[in-house]
Amino acid sequence: MKILILGGTSEASELVSLLAEHPEITATLSLAGRTRAPITPKASNIKTRIGGFGGAAGLANYLEHEEISALICATHPFARNMPFNAQEAAKIAGVPLIFILRPQWQAENGDKWIEVQDNSQVLAALGEEPKNVFLTVGSMELWQYSTAPQHRYLVRSIDEIEEKPLMGATYITARPPFTVESEKELMREFGAEYVISKNSGGSATRAKLIAARELGIPVILIARPHRPSGKQAATAKEAMAWLVEERSDD
Ligand code: NAP
């Protein structure tokens, strides 16, 4: 069985680890190429490719040309294009598809969450008065905050951001997972008054929410974008079980 995993998430990495125990399945892990030094699999039945396919048609071509028998879309819950491309390409090529979509974070007692739809609503919620804002929305969307230069931003990203869109912001690099204690220390040191985050879900970056709750800091949380319908797994393990089933149906 030959499969393609559209990756870039901890679930994709976990699935790759599970596949190392299944030499009868050969897999290709596909990455968009946004992270400069991605962690790539070592197992001999898994190879890595990097870069786009050229839309849904390009992906369908790849599926047909490489004779892929199952497609796993394990891109980030906020990836806008790839899930739709995967759905269309799988249909064109007649390849079974499953999405891995981790559950959203849910508010708990003591959380001060302001739930919004997008970055423009984040800015509206922040208001006109200058605030200290810990911004964790990812480097591709920072430019949207340049219209609100009155705030003091702390920006965290995995790789160093070369073209920094926010003048006067503090930029730091760090790779998740983070601990609650280190998140609290960072927020205290910066004097964070707001934390801005996408509702990504998962454990790797959840510590910031717990830290904010314990420090009484409000979190402005951006809701997930619209997703295509289709077969869905919440974890890598569930996707692995589906693959084993697909294989026995072959
Ligand atoms: P996107 O809107 O879904 O993707 C934009 C384009 O990048 C796609 O049309 C595709 O190009 C290419 N692409 C995306 N994922 C790919 C993959 N796994 N393998 C090969 N090409 C891929 O997603 P995005 O928001 O730009 O994010 C890019 C990547 O970063 C995704 O893999 C996502 O999982 C990861 N990521 C995103 C976020 C976020 O908040 N958006 C956060 C963490 C990680 P073609 O059309 O040419 O095939």
Question: Could you characterize the architecture of this molecule?
Answer:
This protein is of the alpha/beta class. The protein is 30% helix and 22% strand. The chain has seven helices and twelve strands. Helix 6 (207-215) links the parallel strand 10 and strand 11. Helix 1 crosses helix 7 (236-249), helix 2 (55-65) crosses helix 3 (82-93) and helix 5 packs across helix 6. The longest helix is centred in the last third of the chain and has 14 residues, at 236-249. NADP nicotinamide-adenine-dinucleotide phosphate binds next to strand 2, helix 2 and helix 3.
N-to-C span: 9 Å
Helical proportion, percent range: 25-40%
Bound molecules: NADP nicotinamide-adenine-dinucleotide phosphate
State the order of secondary-structure elements, H for helix, E for strand: EHEEHEHEEHEEEHEHEEH
Mean pLDDT: 95
Query: Order of strands side by side in the largest beta sheet?
Result: 3-2-1-4-5-12
Radius of gyration, taken over Cα atoms and rounded to an integer in Å:
20 Å
Low-pLDDT residue intervals, each spanning 5 or more residues: none
Classify the beta-strand content into a percent band: 15-25%
Could you describe the largest sheet, including whether it forms a barrel? 6 strands, parallel
Category from helices, strands and their pairing: alpha/beta
Give the count of helical stretches: 7
Global shape: elongated
What is the number of strand segments? 12
